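Batch 3, record 17
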Amino acid sequence: MREGQIQRDQGELNHRFSDPPLLILISLSSGPKHGYAMMQDILEFSGTQLEPGTLYGALARLERLGLIAPLASEDRRRPYRITASGEAWLRDRLQVLERISETSRRRLALRVATGGWRC
Amino acid sequence: MLRLAKWLVRLYPRGWRQRYADEMMAVLEQHSVTWRTLADLAVGAIVAWFTWERPGLWGFRYLSGICLVSLIALCTYCAIQQPMRWAANEPQLRIARAMAQSLSAGLPVSARAGGPVVDLPSSLDPFMIVYDQDGRVRYANGVLDGKTPHLPDGVLAYTAVHGRDVVTWQPEPGVRIAAVVEHYAGHGGGFVLAGRSLRVTEEDEDALLRGIALAWGVAVGVFTAGLLIWRRRSRIASGLHV
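Prediction for the assembled complex:
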């Protein structure tokens, strides 16, 4: 497979594994934001371009679950804030992600140190 | 692109639009809209119809599921029944073509005809009827109540224009024939009809229909039970699941 094709496929893989609710909560953890500001912030810190359909699908879900709350509308742009439940949920998810990340790093380091797979 | 994107927002459920459409429009006006944005909005609208809490949501889910199961059942039936029905024409296509070629080459009807008499209501054997250009019977070995059955008006006229016609012919109630009519040029021109009873094919079709109907019933039952369990669980669910 050509190098460019591989890079495109890996980019697509990254996009598929993105988790919009998680990204939104991380974005809102630094302060309230409206939809477009969230999209820009998420693109900046994760490289994931959320499209409006995905963004508002996730916002509706998070709001229904009480993890975010809408603030008063500024013109047509409505900011959202993370709630206490949202912060608790985000902390839990981040702990899981840190465990996964730590395990991945440890196993990769072990493989490099031993020069191959250990069965 | 932006106009198309804004139109796609109108596909979301009414309650969803009342809540989010304004701010979504504002985001779209700032966003660089691409085909991906449009596909994302279309998918988002479908998801919203199935997830946006509103009166009648469970009914909508149920009806959509039943429609999908029914559509799959219908497509499955057609995908099997149509080749089955077309296969029932195959021997007649060959018989009619061979006879038409023989007559077009100037050979007499007797060169290929002369098979035993076929009683249409009871026999499964193929039969043949040869007509002249005016529709008069020159030869026939298929009989109904001791006589050559009458072909509906229009079949020979259609064949004269198009060269061939493939029809399901019902000379009397309960007697259905897969018939192929082919035009020939020799002997002043005329038509060859080759036919065969559809009884076995239709029995197979009935068995197929019963099987598909049974599978449809089971699928509807499983889907109904699954949806009821999901509804019950979602109503008693506490805790957060994103």
